Amino acid sequence: MNFQLKILLETSSAQAQQLRALQAHFAQVCNALTPTVQQTRVWNRVALHHLAYRQLRTQFPALGSQMVCNAIYAVSRTSRLVFQHPDSPFSLERLGDQPLPLLHFADDGPVYFDRHTLSLKTGVLSLYTLEGRMRFEQVLRPEDEALFHAHKLREMVLTGGPEAGFALTLWLEDVAAAQAGDASARKARAEADAAVQALADEVARLEAQMQASALPAAGAAPVPRVGEGAELATAATAVEKGKAGLFADLPPGALPDFVKVRQLS
Questions:
Q1: Taking the chain (265 residues) in consecutive chunks of 10 residues, what is each chunk's mean pLDDT?
Q2: How large is the greatest C-alpha to C-alpha distance in the chain, in angstroms?
Q3: How many CB atoms lie within 10 A of CB 102?
Q4: With a threshold of 0.70, does the pTM exceed it?
């Protein structure tokens, strides 16, 4: 079973301005990274980290190392939604070989946290900001705090603003279910890898057969046996589908309102 906890933060005027500053700085880091996504077509979280982490840390020293990692996660997650979700007007299926548009994060967009940058203990919430830790007392019922400590954290997001107020939303996953799911996922990945390898071997076999059946005349093109050309194409397509894998856990429908998509002229 999964759980969602929403914490409404009662902030002073000074605290609200600190959170607003954090939002704006977090968006700046995201917007410094989106041109890399646009130019390289890379939005895998690990790959983006290797491409840009050091440069972002140098460019934005005030944000801190872990929050830079969280900004990379935010760009990766949003890019997956914009460029891979079938309902997105900017999905790769629709764009094809056209240049990717440039994503732009709003200054009041969501800020992603993790257990390094947000903690909860005995009713006290400690939250990272640019000016140090911000603390709130008794933000959760004891039973909800027990859920926070007992379950796997999937996401933790700050939203809102000084006028409407700020809120933290936590998505928690049942530990036992997560472990069972991880085991199932590992098994599925192993089976998928084996299937992809088998298809790749089959493609190689068919290519070898096509080469072997080539006409003896110099410069003549290889001639496949009847039906082998279609068989080869089908196998190759299946290999690419296997490599692509499954894309899940994205909200359906419209694009998020905190990011603008700028089409290139």
A1: 83 94 96 95 94 96 95 95 88 88 93 90 87 84 78 87 90 67 66 66 62 49 35 33 32 60 63
A2: 85
A3: 16
A4: no
